[in-house]
Amino acid sequence: MKRFNWLLAGLLALCLIVTLQAGCGTKCQFRDFSSLTEFEDWLQANDVSERPTAEYASEWYRKALEIQEDALSDGYIVSANYYYDSYTKTYAVYCTTIIDGDVWYWDPETDEPYPDYSLGKVK
Questions:
Q1: Residues 40, 113: contact at Cβ < 8 Å?
Q2: Is residue 105 within 8 Å of 94, Cβ to Cβ?
Q3: Torsion over CA of 119, 46, 79 and 93, rounded to 10 degrees?
Q4: pTM of the prediction?
Q5: pLDDT per residue as tens, the chain (123 positions)
């Protein structure tokens, strides 16, 4: 009976792995946006920026994380970032992505991306 339980557990684990891989498809191959146009089109289709303005930094960052999750579900790489300035006691929340080797950033409450060429090509 012990052997049967191990066999059953192994079979269930194998089924779970196959099911997860089948559902993953090509979306598991995450990538950068291929062009600014592709990125802007994706950003316009994403509705996070259309929601009411966040009152707290945690809500603002939650929006950035939601954009990151949306991008991942569509197969793209987006980072959610924040910076806290202890001198002024203010937060900056932003998302970043790579387009043609350059870093682009934007506020998760807007659809206005800006390039950051200060690092040069990063990829």
A1: yes
A2: yes
A3: 80
A4: 0.75
A5: 444 434 333 334 333 343 344 455 555 689 999 999 999 999 999 999 999 999 999 999 999 999 999 999 999 999 999 999 999 999 999 999 999 999 999 999 998 999 999 999 999
